[in-house]
Design goal:
The complex is a heterodimer of chains A (533) and B (154). Chain A has four domains: 7-113, Four Helix Bundle (Hemerythrin (Met), subunit A), CATH 1.20.120; 130-217; 221-392, 2-Layer Sandwich (Heat Shock Protein 90), CATH 3.30.565.10; 396-532, SH3 Domains (SH3 type barrels), CATH 2.30.30. Helix content of chain A is 49%, strand content 22%. Chain A has 16 helices and 18 strands. Chain A has helices spanning 8-35, 40-59, 63-78, 84-115, 130-156, 159-182, 195-217, 222-226, 228-238, 256-277, 281-286, 319-329, 336-341, 360-370, 448-451, 519-532, and strands at 2-3, 218-220, 243-248, 253-255, 293-302, 305-312, 374-380, 384-392, 396-405, 408-413, 417-422, 433-438, 441-447, 463-469, 472-478, 480-489, 502-507, 513-517. A six-stranded mixed sheet of chain A has the order 1-3-5-6-8-7. Chain A has a five-stranded mixed sheet with strand order 16-9-10-18-17. In chain A, α2 (40-59) packs antiparallel against α3 (63-78), α5 (130-156) runs antiparallel to α7 (195-217) and α9 runs parallel beside α10 (256-277). The radius of gyration of chain A is 28 Å and the shape is globular. Chain A starts with a strand and ends with a helix. With 154 residues, chain B is mainly β. Chain B has a single domain (7-153), classed as OB fold (Dihydrolipoamide Acetyltransferase, E2P) (Beta Barrel). The relative contact order of chain B is 0.23. Classes of the chains: A alpha+beta (533), B mainly beta (154). The interface between A and B is medium-sized, with 32 and 27 residues.
C-alpha cells in the first residue's frame, strides 16, 4: 500500500481537457434545448455535465470555477419544462454563462500552471484513438491468418493459389502499413517481394505488432487512482473532516477505455464516501476509530474480470434515512442498494458542494453499465461502506491451462489452477459430481460435460484439474489435459449478455474459438444446485 | 452514386428460399468448425473466429422451429449486420445454401399473408415476387430482438 502524493500539473492538464469537453457539451445541449424546451432527458444531461464540472473543478482546487458551477447548476434546475417561455429565457442566460465558464477555466489554468511552471517532460506520447487501435489489431489478426495459409501453401506448391494469397497478403500489409504510418508509429519497409524468405521476418513483426497494440491499450490503474488524492484531502477539509487515500494494486492493468469511463464514477463514489460515509474526527474518536478516516481504492484481476473496490471506514449507509427518503419520493425501497443508484435519489436535503442533487450515483451506475460491468454495495453500520465494481476484461492476455471435453477445448485461468491428475479408475463414470480424497483432503468434483450438458460419450480415461477460487477447492473432470499456454481474452460479444460459467473466449492456434471457464461462477452454480437438491 | 435498396441476397433453409437486403450482408464465409456455447438456446449454434473477432452464429432453421441444421457441403455462414436495441451487431447466419444476388423492386414486394408462411409473420418484411416464385424477405432486426437476449441471460 502507498499513501499518495500528487502530480498537480498532470491533474490540471486532465482537468482542462475534460472541462473543455463538458463546457462544449453544455453549449450544444443548451442550443438544442432552445428548440425543444420540453425535453426532460436533455435537461438531465445538462445537469450531469454541470455537476461533473463542479466536482472536477473542486478537485483541482479552482474555487471560483467551483462556485460558479454550483450557481449554474442551481439555475439549470429552475428550467423545469413548465413554462417554455421562462425556460427559453433561462437557456439564453445560461448560454452566456458558457462563455464565463471558458474565461474562468482559462484564468484558472493560467494561475494553476504558474504554480508549477517548471519540469516539463520531454517524453513524447501520442494519442491514438481506440478505434484505430482496434482496426490495427484486426489487421494484424488478418495477416496472421493469411500467413498461416502461406505456410500451408508453401508445402503444397499450388502456384496459382499461392499467387492469389500473395496478392491478398500484399494488400493487407499495405493497408496495415498505411494505418501505422497514420498513427505515426515505426514505419515498416516493403517486405513482400520474396515472401518465402521474408515470411519469417513478417512473423516476428506481426507478433511484435500485436503485442505492441495490446500493450498500448492496457494501462496501470495507479495514475487514475492517484488523481483522487487531492479530492480526498481537500473535500474532507472543507467538511471539517480528515481523510486520506490509500491505494492497492496500482500496477493492475486495465483497458484504456475503462480508465476513461471509470474516472467520473470513481469521483462520485469518493465524494459520497466523504460526504455521507466518513464521520467528523471527534465522532470517530468517540467510536474508537482513528481521527483520520481512510478511503481506499483497490484493484485486482479475478477470473477474467477486473475488480475495483472503493471503500471507506466511516459510519456505513444510513439505511433508515434512505428508506424514509425513498418512501417520500415514492420509490420502491425493498432493495435499498438499488435505490441508491436510482436517478434523482439523494438523502441530503440541501444540495451542497459535495453531493445532494441525486445526480452522482446515477452517473456511477450508467458509467459502469456502459462498460458492461456490475456494481454492488456492502455496508456495515459503524464499520463503513464498500462499493465493488466488476468489469469484464475487454482485452488482455492471461496464462491459461487448456483442457478438452466433448471435442471442445476449454481454457482455465492459470490463477485458478492448483494441480492435475488422472481420475481414479474406481470413480463412477456417469455421475455429474463426486468426491476425491486427495492427500487426506476431500475435494468435490464436477464433470464438465455434465455441467454444460455436452453430448458425446464419456471416454474410458478422464482427468481432473483441481482448481481454487477464494479459498474454495474443487475438481473439474475433463477428457484430456493440454497444458499451459498464453491466451488472449476476447469478449463473447454483446449478443451474449452473460453465459453462466463462461468468462470469455480465446482463439486457439488452429483458428478455432475456445471458451474460457469462470471458476467462480462454476463454484457458485454447484453450491446453488447442491442447496436446492 | 445512390446505392439501390432493391438488391437482396437469397439463400435456402430447408428448401425454402429467403432473402435479406444486400446492404446488411458483410460477407459470406464457408462453414467451418463452430464452437458451441453451453446453456444457450438451440438456435444459438455457437461462436466462430472471423479474423480475430468472435462472432455469434445463429441457426435460422432452429430459430424458425424446424430443428437444428445438419452441416452439408453447401452450408455456409452469412455474416450480416443487425440492430440490437440501439447498437449494431455483426452476427453469422447459418444457411443450407446461398443462391444469388437478385433485384426485387419495391413494387414486387407484398405484405406476407396472415398464414401459410411456415415461419412467424413478424420475422418477415414481405414476400418478394421473383420470376414467378416467392421469396421470404427477412427482417433481421426482428429475428434477434433484445427481448430474446433477456431470455438468453436467464
Amino acid at each position: 500500500m502507498v499513501e499518495l502524493d500528487l502530480n498537480y500539473d498532470q491533474l490540471l492538464a486532465t482537468f482542462a481537457e475534460e472541462a473543455t469537453e463538458e463546457i462544449a457539451a453544455l453549449e450544444t445541449g443548451l442550443l438544442a434545448l432552445e428548440t425543444s424546451p420540453e425535453d426532460a432527458d436533455l435537461r438531465g444531461d445538462l445537469l450531469r455535465y454541470a455537476h461533473t464540472l463542479k466536482g472536477n473543478a473542486s478537485c483541482v482546487g479552482l474555487t471560483t470555477l467551483t462556485s460558479f458551477a454550483h450557481a449554474y447548476e442551481e439555475m439549470l434546475e429552475r428550467m423545469d419544462g413548465i413554462d417554455p417561455e421562462v425556460d427559453r429565457a433561462l437557456a439564453s442566460l445560461l448560454l452566456s454563462g458558457v462563455d464565463t465558464f471558458r474565461r474562468l477555466l482559462n484564468g484558472g489554468l493560467a494561475t494553476g500552471n504558474q504554480q508549477q511552471a517548471t519540469g516539463n517532460s520531454t517524453r513524447r506520447s501520442l494519442r491514438v484513438s481506440a478505434d484505430r487501435l482496434n482496426r490495427m489489431l484486426d489487421l494484424a489478426g488478418e495477416i496472421s491468418i493469411a500467413r498461416g495459409r502461406v505456410q500451408q501453401l508453401l508445402s503444397t506448391e499450388d502456384i496459382e493459389e499461392l499467387i492469389e494469397t500473395e496478392r491478398e497478403l500484399d494488400f493487407l500489409h499495405g493497408e496495415l502499413q498505411e494505418m501505422i504510418m497514420r498513427a505515426r508509429m515505426v514505419p515498416v519497409g516493403p517486405l513482400f517481394r520474396q515472401y518465402a524468405r521474408t515470411e519469417r521476418e513478417l512473423d516476428f513483426l506481426h507478433g511484435e505488432l500485436q503485442e505492441m497494440i495490446m500493450r498500448a491499450r492496457m494501462v496501470p490503474v495507479g495514475p487514475l487512482f492517484r488523481q483522487y488524492a487531492r479530492t480526498v484531502r481537500d473535500l474532507a477539509a472543507t467538511h471539517g473532516k480528515s481523510a486520506r487515500l490509500v491505494t492497492t494494486g496500482d500496477d493492475v492493468e486495465i483497458d484504456t477505455t475503462a480508465v476513461e469511463m471509470l474516472r467520473d464514477p470513481l469521483m462520485h463514489m469518493i465524494r459520497n464516501a466523504i460526504d455521507h460515509g466518513l464521520e467528523p474526527s471527534a465522532q470517530r474518536l468517540v467510536a474508537g476509530k482513528e481521527a483520520t478516516g481512510t478511503i481506499s481504492l483497490e484493484a485486482r484481476h479475478e477470473a477474467g474480470s477486473v475488480i475495483i473496490k472503493v471503500s471507506d471506514d466511516g459510519a456505513g449507509l444510513d439505511r433508515e434515512a434512505i428508506a424514509a427518503r425513498a418512501a417520500r419520493l415514492g420509490i420502491d425501497s425493498t432493495d435499498l442498494d438499488r435505490v441508491i443508484f436510482e436517478s434523482g435519489f439523494s438523502t441530503t436535503e440541501e444540495a451542497n458542494d459535495l453531493s445532494g442533487r441525486g445526480v452522482g450515483m446515477d452517473v456511477v451506475r450508467r458509467g459502469i453499465e456502459s462498460l458492461r460491468g456490475t456494481i454492488k454495495i456492502e455496508s456495515r453500520p459503524g464499520l463503513g461502506t464498500t462499493f465493488t465494481i466488476r468489469l469484464p476484461l475487454t482485452l488482455a492476455v492471461i496464462d491459461g491451462f487448456g483442457v478438452s471435453a466433448a471435442d471442445e477445448t476449454w481454457v482455465v485461468p492459470m490463477a485458478n489452477v492448483l494441480e492435475c491428475l488422472e481420475l481414479p479408475a474406481a470413480e463412477p463414470r456417469e455421475q455429474k459430481t463426486g468426491m476425491l480424497l486427495l492427500r487426506d483432503e476431500i475435494v468435490p468434483y464436477v464433470r464438465l460435460r455434465s455441467l454444460f450438458a455436452l453430448d458425446g460419450e464419456t471416454p474410458a480415461r478422464e482427468n481432473v484439474l483441481v482448481v481454487q477460487h477464494d479459498g474454495m477447492k474443487g475438481g473439474l473432470v475433463v477428457d484430456e489435459l493440454h497444458g499451459a499456454s498464453q491466451a488472449v481474452i476476447k469478449p463473447l460479444g454483446d449478443y451474449f449478455a452473460e453465459v453462466p460459467g463462461i468468462a470469455g473466449s480465446s482463439i486457439l492456434g488452429s483458428g478455432r474459438v475456445a471458451l474460457i471457464l469462470d471458476v467462480r461462477a462454476i463454484f457458485d452454480r454447484m453450491e446453488k444446485d447442491n442447496a436446492t437438491e | 452514386m445512390q446505392q439501390s435498396n432493391d438488391q437482396y441476397l437469397t439463400f435456402f433453409i430447408r428448401g425454402e428460399e429467403y432473402a435479406v437486403s444486400i446492404l446488411r450482408v458483410k460477407e459470406i464465409i464457408e462453414y467451418e468448425s463452430i464452437t458451441r456455447v453451453p446453456t444457450t438456446p438451440v438456435h444459438v449454434r455457437g461462436v466462430l473466429n472471423l479474423r480475430g473477432t468472435v462472432l455469434p452464429v445463429i441457426d435460422l432453421a432452429a430459430k424458425f422451429g424446424h430443428g437444428d441444421s445438419e452441416a452439408t457441403r453447401t452450408t455456409c455462414v452469412i455474416v450480416a449486420e443487425t440492430a440490437l436495441g440501439d447498437q449494431m451487431l455483426i452476427v453469422g447466419l447459418l444457411a443450407d445454401a446461398v443462391s444469388s444476388v437478385v433485384d426485387i423492386p419495391a413494387d414486387a414486394v407484398e405484405p406476407p399473408p396472415s398464414f401459410g408462411t411456415n415461419i412467424r409473420v413478424d420475422f418477415l418484411t414481405g414476400m418478394g415476387k421473383l420470376e414467378g416464385r416467392l421469396v421470404l424477405i427477412l427482417d433481421l432486426d426482428r429475428i434477434l430482438s433484445p427481448i430474446e437476449l433477456e431470455q438468453l441471460a436467464s
